[in-house]
Amino acid sequence: MQQALASIPAKAVTLVDLTKDANAIIRSEETVFTVNSIGSGVTKYKATITILNENGKHHAKLYVPYDKLSKVDNITGTSYDKSGKKIKTLKNKDIIDISSVSDFSLFEDNRVKIANLTYTIYPYTVEFEYQVTTKNMLFYPLWRPQSEEDLSVEKALLRVEVPKGMKLRYRENNLQEKVTQESTPTYDVYLWQVKDLAPVVEEPYGPSLAELVPEVRTAPTYFEVEGYQGNMETWQSYGQWVNKLNTGRDVLPEATRQKLQEMVVGATSPEEKAKKLYDYLQGKTRYVSIQLGIGGWQPFEASFVDSKGYGDCKALTNYTQSMLKAVGVDSYQALIRAGDGATDVITDFPSSQFNHVILCVPLPKDTLWLECTSQTTAAGYSGSFTGGRHALLITPDGGKLVKTQFYKAEDNAQKRNIKVQLDEAGNGTATVTTVYTGEQQESRSQAIHSLKPDDQKKWLYQQIKVPSYEILSYGFEEQKMRLPVVTEKLELSLRQCATISGKRMFLSPNLMSKWTYIPPQPEKRKTDVVRNMAFFDSDSVVFELPVGYTLEYQPQDVVHKSEFGEYKATIKVNGPEVTYIRTMQMYDGRFSSESYARLVEFLNNVVKADGDKVVFVKNIN
């Protein structure tokens, strides 16, 4: 081990300073993936990483996951101090082997080996090496050597070896150089390399890190998992493989079929039937993760779920599809990448990019999407978890990419009405009614179903943005519709809602909806502006002042418009009554980097307008 390994060599800083804004530096990284056949492969990984500070110390821990279909053949590791002196060499007893079963899992064989070379004196360097053999060839490497912000890369490479005649599919993004190819007597070899990558920083309202850093996606054409062979060259052929996994797993007991048919007697449409059975599903079943070998992709039989009352997303979706089939309603399973803020799949690169399964019920005029793992979600609501993205519909002919429900600004609404009675000291009592719809109701719905009443009240104290108050009473009403609605009712005691200074009263009429965040304005914006959620907020606030005050100053009506949204605020004073009306609508979309300054200006204007005050003078006889 040379001393130069722990320090930054001069040649690395002639092109780019790898230490600037970095918490760690990947000195070298090699990933070699060898395809032995359509059903087996080997990954060899080797890396040398210099840890520069406390924020980079997680790179001194190596996590190697495995399961029934994969085996960790070996792990080695060594650490060195800043002078290159060896600190520690990993021994087998230092490698922890733990279950990575999630809290909501019943059956899961996922495990992880953890090698820890954390040290307390910076900088220091770690070397890791491991090999994993797999019998799950659904996944080929996704190579992203710059996997986070504040990480620089001196050099890294990906080498993929496939048997001659076997087609490798790949997709490149943000690379310094394209792939180079070579051959051995038995393999076609694909090689990608990067070097001297300075840290990348995600900008406010910017694209995800995956868009900004070098990336190579690889995928098979033909593959096999536990005897199930498939072709992934097109979305259609990938869907055909999923159909193989599902074949014959939709059979329900005859008694259940008869019960379901009786349940929908009187239902006049496929949608009405689907909603009745969805309600039945939510009352009968619960979600439990089941990940065992091919069970990570193949659902349990519908009869199993029917008798046991639980299943994972695949099993519950398959069960719901089977129930609908029993009452004559067609439906299709749909693979999707779920999660609030999850990026959409890469549509031009068929591969296994999904983590969830939902159900699609085609109707004469539209589509009903069903989240079969939830006991509380309204039928037809996709929301932030699965809405507005691509899903792979599994039809009898194979896979077909479709878009799930997209929610517009008026769908994601917050409509609030407030009445405030002020006293001579500026304190007040407020009655607040707020109607939340779409994505804006999700947090309230979760609080309703997951929190006890005392915890709901604590949660509300964290949500309500009023300087000083006490919750006297609260309540929620939920309407489960395709566009769900939660109505929240509050009674608040407000301390110093208005400020009294001598004979003047200063009133800030925007009581609960002040916008406070203004993103920083760099000298030069590098990336596009990305807004993922559209919303519409409206507030109507009526203040009843104590007697004896005369208006001294009233702000003018405010209107601000930009490509990002529209803001309006008006104040009317009629004797002792002050009425404040505010609306703010924000659009989603992708905008040029040059527009960022206009976004900052727009939000600055909103913050300023939200802080406006009305001034009154007390009459003195």
Task: Write the topology of this structure.
Blueprint: H1 10-13, E1 24-37, E2 40-51, E3 61-66, E4 70-80, E5 86-89, E6 95-99, E7 105-108, E8 111-116, E9 124-134, E10 142-143, E11 151-163, E12 168-173, E13 180-183, E14 187-197, H2 209-212, E15 215-220, E16 222-225, E17 228-231, H3 235-246, H4 254-263, H5 270-284, E18 286-287, E19 289-291, H6 302-308, E20 310-311, H7 313-326, E21 332-336, E22 356-362, E23 367-370, H8 383-386, E24 390-395, E25 398-403, E26 413-422, E27 428-437, H9 442-450, H10 453-463, E28 469-479, E29 485-494, E30 498-501, E31 504-507, E32 529-531, E33 535-544, E34 549-553, E35 558-562, E36 565-574, E37 577-586, E38 589-591, H11 596-610, E39 614-618
Parallel strand pairs: 1-11, 7-19, 18-20, 26-33
Antiparallel strand pairs: 1-2, 2-9, 3-8, 4-5, 4-9, 6-8, 10-15, 11-14, 12-15, 13-14, 16-17, 21-22, 21-24, 22-23, 24-25, 26-27, 27-29, 28-29, 30-31, 31-39, 32-38, 33-37, 34-39, 35-36, 36-37
Helix pairs in contact: 5-7, 6-7
Domain Transglutaminase-like: 260-331
Domain DUF3857: 39-200
Protein name: DUF3857 domain-containing protein
